[in-house]
């Protein structure tokens, strides 16, 4: 038998147990052995001495020490990105088949479960394979005919394999791009010899140590624990674990549910059983407010069911109105019908007592008046709307404050089948009015589950005011402050500039599943509350590079990683590139990064118009709508340099009229080879195309958009062609998405002088 001293020169030790030699990765002779080293050595000895005593497998997360891939799309998408625990980074392969990603468990282990979070470019056909040496692989699962989707997660359970290496072997892609994975996880048991399924011949129903189903010998610690250890298979499916003993389940037929239980009655007094929440109009007993404008406008007017009466507050901030439901209910929806004097910033909160404490279930959000139909999830007897800012010099005023939900506050919104894998059950989605077979009912690129529950990485989207039945666009603004050219000034967008672009999207003709037109633009520009982004960037020279290392360095330092798949990101410097560049901004097409750079021209009109222009590029609009042809008189859109700062043309004279809008595509073609000055752009408003001082009677040829070509200039309907869905850009900004390789739109239109 060898001693440890005999092998101290080896990089791997040979340790003797009786007459058997075991190779273990213990430290070299110059190192001290750790507890983990000797624990592993002891385990190896036990396995050799008692080969017949295999324990039942206990599924757990298996650490991944390394990843290797058949190829990478570029240096920004390495194999290691798929195991770094960051769902904002990804591995992406070359654009060909087959491709593979190999995961290293360090040592051989049992594999029972693999979870793959695919990027849009997911594999259509692939296998899960295991190997001891990393070269010869055995397949333990396969999937075929899978479609690409925005956030497809394949959760492969019930696997039975063992090996040091796990390989995702993709034989066919679902897009023209490569195979791409945000994150891959492997689960199983560190013991590759553990047993799955059939139990040894044990009949005493005893659970030992950490076993989860069957008895495998040894001293008994308890007969049942956490609902396990009872019944033939240890699943306790027909009994209840009480004091370490399985008791027969109560025979209940009264349909009563106690506390937070969602299944059978287990004794005690309780409210009526409702396993899935419904959304009905809740009884509103009374209402109270912090103030009244006068006795004509009491709080009770907001709950009287009459849309012609209203509550109105005193002319100051803050103000609140509280509705008493008479009992604690589950609250799933609130509808606020604002009078002209609306709230500019408000939140919703609930409490079981009028004295509180109150829990915020929505907001604070920027208000834009009209009717707000809000999906929430909370419970309480009292529901309070608190306004911290007004839209007018008057008070805040509500025609109606409606509340919907379930009279059982313990109902559940998360049980049953989830057909579209958006984390909302089909029953829940029917109740909410979302599509149980479409993970993004309103098509705004935000999954329904994220809009209702918040994202799995902790982004509280519901509190920011999103709605799964109404399109939302979220933006974060970070800004510079400098003294260049016109004295000390800040580039932080004002509430007025934000309100200007918010209103333009809110009044758009875009349709939604909730039946209300428009897009809800949600901006985080440093206003506080749940809006924890919006940062001042202390930049030395007031100039940022384009979408380069400086831009993405600032983004990494100021933009929370869990916003990457939900928010557009804006930096607002004095200029970008260098001091000789007076471009108003630039943006990525069909992505989420942009720059607004207006030098000293920081009026609300210029800022609001340019935000909408650069965001339009993120939404895949070009300077000519669907093309790069610019200055078209008949393309009345803020995307057109001709109308970026003065606003769009509403009177057919080719001059901006101050209105912020994208084009509605209603204007005819202008053929520069045969223009009618009498017909003009539209509505027969004459145009002196050749500037000769008269309206020529016949057709003339003029290059009216000054691009040195005579061509047919067409309008484009921007609004129905907005591209909402985008893949996170990470640190590089470029790459590809569902529309192909990303491109940068450089906007050479200089801002007007202030």
Describe this structure in words.
- This protein has 754 residues and is mainly beta.
- Among the domains are: 4-49, no CATH class; 60-189, Sandwich (Jelly Rolls), CATH 2.60.120.260; 280-406, Galactose-binding domain-like (Jelly Rolls, Sandwich); 472-593, no CATH class.
- It is built from eight helices and 37 strands.
- Strand 29 and strand 30 form a beta hairpin.
- Helix 5 (495-506) packs across helix 7.
In short:
The protein is mainly beta and 754 residues long.
Mean residue pLDDT: 82
The oligomeric state of the chains shown is single chain
Shape: globular
* CATH architecture identity of one domain: Sandwich
Count of alpha and pi helical runs: 8
Binned strand content: 25-35%
Structural class: mainly beta
| Helicity range | under 10%
**Poorly predicted spans:** 1-53, 198-239, 248-274, 728-734
- The CATH class of one domain: Mainly Beta
CATH superfamily of one domain: Galactose-binding domain-like
Record field, number of beta strands: 37
Over the alpha carbons, how many angstroms does the gyration radius reach? Answer: 32 Å
The biggest sheet amounts to: 9 strands, antiparallel
Looking at the structure, the CATH topology of one domain is Jelly Rolls
| Beginning-to-end CA distance, first to last residue | 90 Å
